[in-house]
Design a protein that fits this description.
The complex is a heterotrimer of chains A (353), B (286) and C (272). Helix content of chain A is 24%, strand content 37%. Chain A has 353 residues and is α+β, with helices and mostly antiparallel strands. Chain A is elongated. With 286 residues, chain B is mainly α. Helix content of chain B is 72%, strand content 2%. Chain B has a two-stranded antiparallel sheet with strand order 1-2. Chain B is globular. The two termini of chain B are 30 Å apart. With 272 residues, chain C is mostly helical. Classes of the chains: A alpha+beta (353), B mainly alpha (286), C mainly alpha (272). Chains in contact: A-B, A-C, B-C. At the B-C interface, α1, α2, α4, α5 and α6 of B face α1, α3, α4, α5 and α6 of C.
């Protein structure tokens, strides 16, 4: 086992930066997820760790060893590709044995290892089949077994569940987590699915346009997002851009035309542009109350039942729409009803804008 | 969308029946009659033309030579064409389509002009010989014209662009990630090509080599010009039988043997290829 | 790894060099001055005199070649589109057999085709008195025969990759079946048609062995005339003439690729 270190790594495609000065450490045995929208550089990063792409600048280390200029076949990595990249002309067994043969593992050992791996992913009975005879989930598991068969120092997974439907994806998340814990293998996992990232990861690295936006555990990243982008990408958030216009005791007064409202704490000096964020589940709507000074008000535009909760969309003056989620599903509002918007004091997040 | 599609087939089918089936049958049938001179044929069915072909060593040698030259052509085209097609298929250069069009363009210029260029290129005092003499690789100019070497070079020039184009379109359907996967599993680049790309390209390799072989078996113009009348392949003999000896039945006989041996070899190769084929065809790796 | 790349690059250069060298030497040699009746390479003097004295006896064959290639290209285009639609859309029994049948002319050596037509035209004359041998019409018949497979193949290839939902969309927008064909389907298959027609034209224009038996001295084609000239009476003017033909052929193909964006190479549905 080994850690992976990326030190000031940059990669450009046709002059456009895909990854910019990225530094990151995947600790020994942990599962770290690179999370971000498409085009944020997460797959590029993964491929640089695999050696399939060369960084222009910076270094890649796997277990203390500088592998920046080392060919992929000498890196001792295992990789699961987005479309699995199973060899269509080889059986399941031959696919899993591919890396063992390339590394000249003796036949008997090879056989034992393949059987062990197929057992791990519960595909013993599919050993003689060709990839095109398998279901999507089975192919995914073959790809995983193949990647870890010759025990690699690092497992790289590129949107491995992206091609599966929702139910299967959720089942496979558990499966991946189980196998990763069983092998205790250092894993770098790429996904754009925040739920998948939260479900699987020891830590999450959120990427935004080629840069590392935040690195932390799921709770850290969700509760204390470093930027409005992270807050918006992990879960839902109401974002309000405004300017600090004054103080009122322990509160800071923010103006976001045409609204003036207050948030707790001394956030920034007067005149600073800021972004205020509140998660929908921390927003409460009060009907029939007289609005206090410096409170937001609006009209309920629509309420949507989405299974475990009810989501209310409140239109405020000046094109501002605030989303509130009610998990008790008790309060009911008529469309057009005026409400006062409140939130928990500790729910307010602010960033300089 | 439903339109009377089958009716569409009528005009082309009628034209091709008239131009294809009727004349071919008349021609092939003529191989079963005796030549009585002056372009006339006898009136009784006989297989003596075939007997003559297969008892005369001259014709057997011509058949063997035609097949051997065609096999060499196919082998050279695969050996040279595969790396070129691979490079093109994996290229991300914006010049790629220009390189490809260059292949199409060079393959479509009339063979006569290509042969003229080859004659200049390969002649005893041509640029190629000047180059090897200047580099002191040889003492005497190489003899590259009016012999088998010239004919094979002409055939390669004729079939190589088409072989590259076929291999390119097949290699392009093999996802690059398969090679990347092989690399992360410990395979050096050439091992990745050998264990993954090559097996998946087998249908393309078979198709391309058969096409090269078939075209070479039937090649007339470049063989006649670069062989200088000294390399007698079956197509050249067919033309001679008609033009010099006005012996249609025997020309038809040679044509039948040429076609039949081509078909035979194609069937054999395809059967072998089918036996080799495993798993899913390339491009279905999903 | 570096060695492998080096070898591939070497083969690439070698292959392209070999393919293009004949055209280059013709072009270079065509600018040689002097009257010599053999090729001097590299030329010792530069002159364009051979371009100014393109041999007059090639004008008529050139005209015949262009005319027949246009005619055969046009006929094959119409027939080829019809056949391709029927083959791809028709759900005909024995569809693969029919496809192979339409492709069959390319499996027959063109020398054989030439002689077959020679005999066929003799036979036709004997039976009906219709004279085709040595006429442009006879030549046209041969050329339709050898170009039709290219056309069928090119159009069928495009049709097979055609997205049926596009036609369905047109139908839901109120178009009739015929106007859908005219306004949606035909414009979309145009690249295949253009590529096929160009192939047909160039194959017809360049043919020697299929044509040489059915032409007379009055209807001989440019390549056939050149073929006999190379066998019997070579003159340096042929180099200038050939250069012009090469330039026009290659120019036409690149022009079609750049102006119309026609891709001559079938693209696979590649993965990633």
């Amino acid at each position: 086992m080994a850690s992976v270190v990326l030190a000031d790594v940059s990669k450009r495609f046709d002059g456009v930066a895909a990854v910019h000065d990225l530094s990151l450490e995947v600790r020994d045995g942990e599962l770290l997820t690179l999370l971000g929208p498409s085009g944020c550089g997460k797959t590029t990063t993964l491929r640089m760790v695999a050696g399939l792409l060369q960084p222009e600048r910076g270094r890649v280390l796997i277990g203390e060893r500088d592998v920046t200029r080392v060919a992929p076949e000498r890196r001792k990595v295992g990789m699961v590709f987005q479309d699995y990249a199973l060899f269509p002309h080889l059986t399941v067994t031959e696919n899993v044995a591919f890396g063992l043969r390339e590394r000249a593992v003796p036949a008997s050992e090879r056989e034992r290892r393949v059987r062990e791996m197929l057992g791990l992913v519960r595909l013993e009975d599919q050993a003689a089949k060709f990839p095109h005879q398998l279901s999507g989930g089975q192919r995914q598991r073959v790809a995983l077994a193949r990647a870890v068969a010759y025990p690699p120092q690092v497992l790289l997974m590129d949107e491995p569940l992206g091609a599966l439907d929702l139910k299967l994806r959720q089942a496979m998340q558990l499966e991946v987590a189980r196998i990763q814990r069983t092998l205790r293998i250092t894993t770098l996992y790429v996904t754009h699915d925040q739920e998948e990232a939260l479900n699987l990861s020891d830590r999450i690295a959120v990427m935004d346009r080629g840069r590392l936006a935040q690195l932390g555990t799921g709770t850290e990243v969700y509760d204390r997002p470093a930027t409005p982008f992270v807050a918006d990408f992990l879960g839902r958030v109401n974002l309000i851009r405004g300017r600090v216009v004054g103080r009122e005791g322990a509160w800071t007064v923010v103006r976001a035309e045409p609204h003036v409202f207050r948030i707790p704490g001394a956030v920034a000096v007067e005149g600073t542009e800021i972004v205020v964020g509140v998660r929908p589940e921390r927003v409460r709507l009060i009907a029939g109350a007289e609005p206090a000074a410096l409170a937001l008000t609006g009209e309920v535009e629509r309420s949507a039942f989405v299974g475990s909760l009810v989501r209310h969309y409140v239109r405020c003056a000046g094109d501002l729409v605030i989303t509130a989620e009610d998990q008790d599903r008790k309060a009911a509002f008529a469309p057009g009803q005026r409400v006062v918007i409140e939130w928990d004091l500790d729910a307010v997040m602010t960033w300089s804008g | 969308m439903r339109l009377p599609w089958p009716l569409f087939l009528l005009p082309p089918l009628l034209v091709s029946l008239l131009l294809f089936v009727v004349p071919q049958i008349a021609f092939l049938r003529s191989s079963l009659f005796r030549n009585v001179g002056y372009g006339q044929t006898g009136s009784t069915l006989t297989v003596e033309n075939y007997a003559r072909f297969f008892t005369d060593e001259f014709y057997q040698a011509a058949l063997l030579r035609t097949a051997a030259l065609s096999l060499i052509d196919a082998a050279v085209c695969l050996a040279v064409g595969f790396p070129i097609a691979y490079r093109l298929a994996r290229s991300r250069s914006r010049w790629r389509s220009t390189w490809l069009t260059l292949l199409v363009a060079s393959s479509l210029v009339t063979v006569v002009i290509k042969a003229l260029g080859m004659m200049i290129l390969l002649s005893a005092n041509g640029p190629l010989n000047q180059a090897v003499l200047a580099l002191r690789l040889v003492r005497e100019p190489l003899k590259l014209l009016n012999n088998d070497v010239g004919v094979v070079l002409g055939l390669v020039h004729y079939t190589l662009p088409l072989v590259i184009l076929i291999l390119f379109s097949v290699l392009q359907t093999i996802p690059e990630d398969l090679e990347a996967a092989a690399r992360t599993l410990g395979a050096a680049p050439w091992r990745a090509v050998g264990r993954v790309v090559l097996p998946l390209a087998v249908p393309g390799l078979v198709a391309a080599s058969l096409m090269a072989f078939n075209l070479a078996m039937g090649a007339f113009t470049s063989t006649a010009l670069l062989g200088g009348g000294k390399v007698l392949t079956l197509p050249v003999l067919i033309q001679r039988k008609v033009v010099l000896e006005v012996d249609y039945p025997f020309a038809a006989t040679i044509a039948v043997v040429l076609l039949a041996s081509g078909v035979l070899l194609n069937v054999l190769v395809l059967r072998m290829a089918l036996r080799l084929r495993r798993g899913a065809p390339a491009g279905t790796a999903a | 790894m570096k060695l492998g790349r080096l070898i591939v690059t070497f083969v690439f250069a070698l292959g392209y060099g070999f393919l293009l060298a004949p055209f280059l030497v013709i072009l270079i040699a065509s600018f040689a001055g002097g009257q010599s009746h053999y090729v001097v390479f590299p030329p010792t003097s530069f002159s364009v005199e051979w371009y100014l004295r393109l041999p007059a006896e090639y004008f008529r064959p050139a005209l015949v070649s262009v005319g027949v290639a246009l005619g055969a290209g046009l006929i094959s285009t119409v027939l080829g589109i019809l056949a391709a639609f029927a083959l791809v859309r028709g759900r005909l029994p024995g569809r693969n057999l029919l496809k192979a049948y339409f492709n069959a002319p390319l499996q027959i050596p063109f020398v054989v085709t030439g002689i077959v037509f020679l005999q066929f035209y003799y036979l036709l004359y004997a039976l009906t008195g219709a004279r085709l041998l040595g006429t442009v019409w006879g030549l046209l018949g041969v050329h339709v025969f050898i170009t039709l497979p290219y056309m069928v193949g090119a159009v069928a290839a495009v049709l097979e990759r055609f997205e049926p939902s596009l036609e369905e969309a047109a139908l839901t927008l109120g178009a009739t079946r015929w106007s859908t064909l005219r306004r949606v389907t035909l414009p979309l298959i145009r690249p295949g048609v253009v590529a096929g027609a160009l192939y047909a034209f160039v194959v017809s224009f360049g043919d020697v062995p299929a044509s040489m038996f059915v032409v007379s001295s009055a209807t001989t084609t440019l390549p056939v005339q050149l073929f006999y000239a190379l066998e019997f009476d070579y003159t340096p003017a042929l180099l200038a003439l050939s250069s012009v033909v090469v330039a026009l052929s290659m120019g036409a193909i690149f022009a079609v690729q750049w102006l119309l964006g026609v891709d001559f190479v079938q693209r696979g549905r590649a993965g990633s």
